[in-house]
Amino acid sequence: MYLLYADESGNTGTDLDNKQQPMFVLCGLAVKSDDWYNINYMFQKKKEEICSDLKSSEVHATDIFSASKNIKKGFDFRKYTLEEDLNILEQLIDFIVDMKFPIFVTGILKNNFKKFIAKELGPSIKIDPYLLSFINLSNGYNTFLIENKSNGIIFLDEVREKVKDIDILYDKLQLTNFGCDTNNIIEKALFLESSSSNFIQLVDVCNFYINKYYSIYFFDAVKNPIKKQHCIDMYNKIKHLIINCSGGKDSLIKFFK
Questions:
Q1: pTM metric for this prediction
Q2: What element of type H or E holds 133?
Q3: Confidence band (pLDDT; 50, 70, 90) for 149?
Q4: Residue 149: CB atoms within 10 Å
Q5: What pLDDT is recorded for position 249?
Q6: 210 near 235, Cβ under 8 Å?
């Protein structure tokens, strides 16, 4: 059995005009259940080896990248140089690459999504990109499970308020041309706090760099040249692990253009 841990970035609900977060990315990282204990133990030890601030605090890539400080949560990345902070993140990426985790990704440019919904359903209809992205991710994951003759479970990070909408969409999308085949997924959505799950923290790192890469590609979003090149390099390290669930080879992010 495979366990898929999923996390999102750029989540602004139905506010599709948010200029600070113009894109939405949903990312999932899969691990074999038989390997779960060993990898979890290895990652906990790796965190302690990489940085003392990660020994008892959760990995949140944005905090490290932005050199944030939060004494209550047990970290202070301001005390490190930029090079040291980026090196912490690169070691986390290297762990993901070494473990060869399949990384499932679906992304949406919100402005394109808004135009698509207005054209297909009318300008008064509002749909949260998370919901359709979750369906795309589920389809891609289910295809992977079929190919590997396995069943699977999905764990989500702190989106309990969406569970009813997700269940409704599963039923409705099976009757539409979007399609929704999830027969090999034995649980649609179980919920975990990121602070208590190493695998949610790992997918947070993946999601961070995937979002940054496409933010750079579409919006030139990272101005610092050192940080920009770092983001591109980290994305390229995990690129071969990515399974695009958005509907086609070139459709990631531009699916609703």
A1: 0.89
A2: helix 129-147
A3: very high
A4: 7
A5: 46
A6: yes
